[in-house]
Amino acid sequence: MDAASSNSVTFYDFLDRMRNPASIDLVGSIKSFIVSFSFHATNPVNDSKRFQDFLLTMESAIRDHPLWAGSSEEEVEQALEGLEKYVITKLFLRIFASSTEDVKIDHEITNKINLLQSFLKPEHLDIPSYLHNQSSWLLAEKELQKINASKAPREKLMCILNCCRVINNLLLNASMTENRVIAGADDFLPVLIYITIKANPPQLHSNLKFIQLYRRQSKLISEEAYYFTNLLSAKSFIFDLDAKSLSMDKLEFEERMEAAKASHQAAPVEPNAALISHHLTNIRGPPSYPFMDAQAEELTVRDVETLLSLYKDVVTKYTSLRRAVEKLNIHRPEQIVQKDKIGSTREVESEKVGIERSSAE
Amino acid sequence: MGCSSSLPDGSARRLSGMDQDSAVAPDAKNLRVKLVLLGDSGVGKSCIVLRFVRGQFDPTSKVTVGASFLSQTIALQDSTTVKFEIWDTAGQERYAALAPLYYRGAAVAVVVYDITSVDSFTKAQYWVKELQKHGSPDIVLALVGNKADLQENREVSVQDGLEYAEKNGMFFIETSAKTADNINQLFEEIAKRLPRPLTS
Ligand SMILES: Nc1nc2c(ncn2[C@@H]2O[C@H](COP(=O)(O)OP(=O)(O)O)[C@@H](O)[C@H]2O)c(=O)[nH]1
Ligand SMILES: [Mg+2]
């Protein structure tokens, strides 16, 4: 499935239509909506409501618009997806992780997961051994870690769904080869929790909140809502996790947590380390590179997928590390703060393309 | 070990071709219903749902259904259709506190126990109380005593199940996912009890 590229084609199609002089009224509404956002203090609940209402208004405007006359339901849908992505990308800095409370929760979760990563095993969540599958797990983790690759709520949600799809396939395959009942949520949730801990996806709390508030409401239903709820539930479980949450001796849990804290504190902390932490989020987590001792002749074609994913993983980590090191060497802390604000997620194409028309105005 | 392989009962009223999500808002004729499953691990929730959703298929066919989210559309006598979107929840004790995230906004909650386990019946009562406290006020509640085929091991009488359900304004039924007994009836009865949006 080539969702990503068909997605950007759709998005460019939306931008094209918006450059058409006939859409001047729609462009006017979009611009004044974006501008009106800066008149109010940020308030997630109000902002979300205003955005959702705006989408509904625009939906009927688009359905009635000459430019979409005779269009299929699908084309209208695509326009709405384009609109969501465009407006949210413009407002992103205002609305994403906008409260200090959210930033704090994100940090707490990231830190807690860092500690848990150092000792948590699948057995602690009673994940049965027939579901232990390093390459599936790694794929699922990678999907979740892509969550900041886009600013669009739809694309963020897709990362969650892709991760859950990998887990589902693992469960289905296991139930077929093991010839047992598909255990459903009893198996699914523990695996998702474990994957989430292994992946430590960036700004987990803020991303979930953001999707909930800004994904078009009629699209966060059914299967999408179910898997979204599961990640919400995994986050909540991790946030509240204590000795009683795991199949682990209470004392041992506490000792392991203490040890993990001590070793994290012992690591030399640069004064500006936190500021560049987002460059490093891709580097954390215990790497597992199952092919380190492999010989070429042992490999089969089926290993290609895993190898490719590992290759991408290594390159991503290397690139992040290099970038982080460059930042440390070249920039002074203040400059890093600035960079942090604009660059905290990879820029998407939509930022660089406006819906300004050069001729029509 | 599977969910038994006896033939499903002969209801020919499932409409599998209709499962794709339509963008149109649900109307009076075509309802989309969120149904959440609650109950101890092992009482047979997964088997009930698989029986309901896959019952008509050749049991050997590989159906790529999600392991924990399933949907099935049924047609009622009055030519309305109901699409059940079935949300499974993890039954292990350590996840009990997460249940509200799942039953929030559900139109139906099906609480399942195993008639051969008093403990599972006690747990079912815990879920009923939870739902009464925190579920949406107009939620349709069903109490299901499963594994009715295991009469010789019965620990919970029909009477106890029925009385508890009546006292709490719930619909009650005993089922067997193994023999498919009462599985379709369960979902049909739920469909009848759904509040209908007014036809405009
Ligand atoms: N005899 C009998 N066994 C059942 C019935 N339903 C489920 N089981 C068995 O009970 C076990 C647990 O079922 P499952 O659906 O996985 O329970 P869940 O944990 O609630 O999803 C499995 O071994 C099933 O084969 C039933 O109606 N009768
Ligand atoms: Mg189950």
Automatic annotation (TrEMBL), chain A:
GO CC annotations, alphabetized: cytosol; endocytic vesicle
Residue intervals of the VPS9 domain: 103-247
Record GO terms (molecular function): guanyl-nucleotide exchange factor activity; small GTPase binding
Renumbered residue ranges of the record's region Disordered: 341-361
GO biological process, one term: vesicle-mediated transport
Entry-linked Pfam families: DUF5601, VPS9
Matches recorded under PANTHER family: RAB GDP/GTP EXCHANGE FACTOR (PTHR23101), VACUOLAR PROTEIN SORTING-ASSOCIATED PROTEIN 9A-LIKE ISOFORM X1 (PTHR23101:SF63)
Record-given protein name: VPS9 domain-containing protein
Native source species: Kalanchoe fedtschenkoi (Lavender scallops)
TrEMBL record, chain B:
GO terms under biological process: early endosome to late endosome transport
Annotated SUPFAM superfamilies: P-loop containing nucleoside triphosphate hydrolases (SSF52540)
InterPro entries: P-loop_NTPase (IPR027417), Small_GTP-bd (IPR005225), Small_GTPase (IPR001806)
GO molecular function: GTP binding; GTPase activity
Cross-referenced CDD domains: Rab5_related
Pfam families noted in UniProt: Ras
Disordered: annotated segments: 1-21
Gene Ontology cellular-component annotations: cytoplasmic side of endosome membrane; early endosome
PROSITE patterns associated with the record: RAB, RAS, RHO
Protein name: Uncharacterized protein
